[in-house]
Structures are given as C-alpha cells and as structure tokens.
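Fig. S4 source data, part A: sequence.
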Amino acid sequence: MNTRKSLAYISSIATLVAIGGCNNPSGTYEGTCTNTTYGKQSNMLLVLNKNGEQLSGTLTLSGDLVGGGDIKGRVDNSRVTFTTANPAWGQITWTGELKSDVIIGKYLVETPLDVQQQQGIRSQQGVWSVKKN
C-alpha cells in the first residue's frame, strides 16, 4: 500500500473512532438482568441515546425486579456507565462493556442506611446482558 492510501485509511479509521462509529451504543437492546443478592431475574429493555460522551434513555424491567426508568450516564470508549433512581430504594449504578452489538455488565443498588433500617431493604447487586436489536 502506498503512503497516500495508508494515510487515507488511517484518517478514515480515526474519523470513525472520533464520531463513535466503532463504539456507538445508541439503539434499542434486549436481554436479561439477574439480581445475584436475591437470585431473581427479569427481562430488560434498554434504549440508549449517545450525544458526545453523554448517555440518556430508558430502562424497562419486566419480571421479578424493579429499578427501571430514565437513565443518565456516559460512555468512555467501550465502557458504558449510567444510573437509574428508585425513590424507595436509592440509586442504581449500571456499568458495562460494549462489544460490537452486546453490552455485558454489573449493577449495584445503593440503598441509604435509613431505608435499610426502616424497610429492611439491603443494598443489592447483579449482572446484566443485552443485545442490540
């Protein structure tokens, strides 16, 4: 490959990476979410919108788990991080790794101490996996 073709190829790859063409999580995903604290599972529908490094969208859980709603977060290369808020239990932080059209990750329910004591709800964690439609 000559020098001009090599530079054009490298420039094209750099442009794709800069605009998020290789790791753009925007889209609709479906999969499962498992609460490893209590051994419960739900189907998961995740809609992500990327604007620069910022993420927005919605998370819907159907089954034994709750904790969906509007999301707010960010993407850094292939790492996706966002939160949902549950007024009764606190904030849920979701982290995942984007690989092609799949995101696999973990989540943590950060329950305030007063809620834990009053309602007997403890902090929880789990795993999730979704595939882009």
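Fig. S4 source data, part B ends here. Residues 5-21 have pLDDT under 50 and may be disordered.
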